[in-house]
Amino acid sequence: MNDEARGDPVALELLLADAMREEAVDTEGQRRAVAAFRAARDAGRHRARTRDRDDWREARGNGNGAGDERPAGHGAPGRGGDPGRGTDPGPDGTPAPAPSSRERPRP
Amino acid sequence: MQPYDGELGDAVARAQRGDETGFADAYRLVQPGLLGYLRGIVGDDAEDVASDAWLEIARDLGRFKGDGAGFRGWTATIARHRALDHLRRLRVRPRPAVLEPDVLELPGPHDTHDQALEALSTERALALVRTLPRDQAEAVLLRVVVGLDGPSAARVLGKSPGAVRTASHRGLRGLARRLTVRDGTDPAPGGPRTRGEPT
C-alpha cells in the first residue's frame, strides 16, 4: 500500500486526506455554530436574498471540463441552473430546491 | 465527490427549513475538511478562524443555493475569506512564525519509505503541505481534504480550473518528492513516480 502511495497520486491523496482530516468534531464549536444558526433563524436573517456568490447550483460548469476556463465566481452567462429563476429567492424567501440529481464526473 | 454529499445536501435542506439538527449534521460533515484546509493556511489559528466562518455560515445559510457538494464550496469560500482576513491582521501585528523548525524535521536517512509514509501524522502532513507555495497548498487541500472537484476549487480560489489543476498536480508531485527524497532515494527527474525498491 505504501509502495503505491509513493508512486500513485491517488494513494498519496488518500494518505493526505486521512492525515489532515480530524474526524472528531469539537462539540463546543458545534454548539456555538448551532446557537448562531438559531439566532439568525429567529431574527429572520435566513430570508436574506441570495447573492451571486451564494448560488452554487451548477456553478462549476457542470464539470464538463473543456472550455470551462471562464473566471470563477462571476455571474457569467451559462452558469447553469434555471436562467429564468436567477438568484432570487422564492416569494416566501425560502431557497429554491436544489437539482434533484446531477452527474458530475470525477475530477 | 465526497461519499457524504447526499447526506450533506439533505442536512442543508433541513437546516434551510429551520431545523437546527440539520444544521448540526451539516457542521459535523463539513467541519473536518474545513479545519484541515484552514490548518494549511493559518496553522494553529485554524479553529478560531473556523469558528468565525461558522458564525457567518450560520447567519447566511438562507442565502445559499445548491446541493451538498455546492455547500462544501460555499463554506470553503467563506472560510478562505476569514482566513485571508486573519492573515492580513497578522501582517499588521506580526507574530512568530507558526511553524517551529522541529516540526519541519522529516525522517532521517535511516528511515525507509514505508516508515516515512506510515508516519504521516497530522503534524507532519501539515508541515509538508506548508512547505508548498500557497497556491499549490490551497489547491491540494481543497481538492483532497475538503473534497471539492476541480471547477469548485477554482471558484473558491477565483482562478481558472486549468490553473488550479496545474497547481494541484504540482503540489501533489512536490509532496511525493519530499516523501521520497527524505529517505535518500532520488526520484526520477520531473516526477514522483519512482517505483524502485529501497536500496
UniProtKB/TrEMBL annotation, chain A:
Protein name, entry field? Uncharacterized protein
List where Gly residues composition bias occurs.
Answer: 75-84
- Domain of life per record: Bacteria
Record the organism: Streptomyces doudnae
Q: Where is the composition biased (Basic and acidic residues)?
A: 39-60
Question: For the region Disordered, what residue ranges are annotated?
Answer: 38-107
From TrEMBL, chain B:
Which part of the chain is the RNA polymerase sigma-70 region domain? Answer: 27-91
Does the record's keyword annotation contain Ribosomal protein? Answer: no
- Which residues lie in coiled coils? none
Please list the residue ranges annotated as the RNA polymerase sigma factor 70 region 4 type domain: 124-173
**Cross-referenced InterPro entries:** RNA_pol_sigma-70-like, RNA_pol_sigma-70_dom, RNA_pol_sigma70_r2, RNA_pol_sigma70_r4_t2, RNA_pol_sigma_r2, RNA_pol_sigma_r3/r4-like, WH-like_DNA-bd_sf
The Gene Ontology terms for molecular function here are:
sigma factor activity
Q: Which UniProt keywords apply?
A: Sigma factor, Transcription, Transcription regulation
Q: Which Pfam families match?
A: Sigma70_r2, Sigma70_r4_2
UniProt keyword Transcription, yes or no: yes
- UniProt record similarity statement: Belongs to the sigma-70 factor family. ECF subfamily.
Q: What PANTHER family does UniProt report for this protein, alphabetically?
A: ECF RNA POLYMERASE SIGMA FACTOR SIGK (PTHR43133:SF66), RNA POLYMERASE ECF-TYPE SIGMA FACTO (PTHR43133)
Q: Which NCBIfam families match?
A: sigma70-ECF
Which named protein is this?
RNA polymerase sigma factor
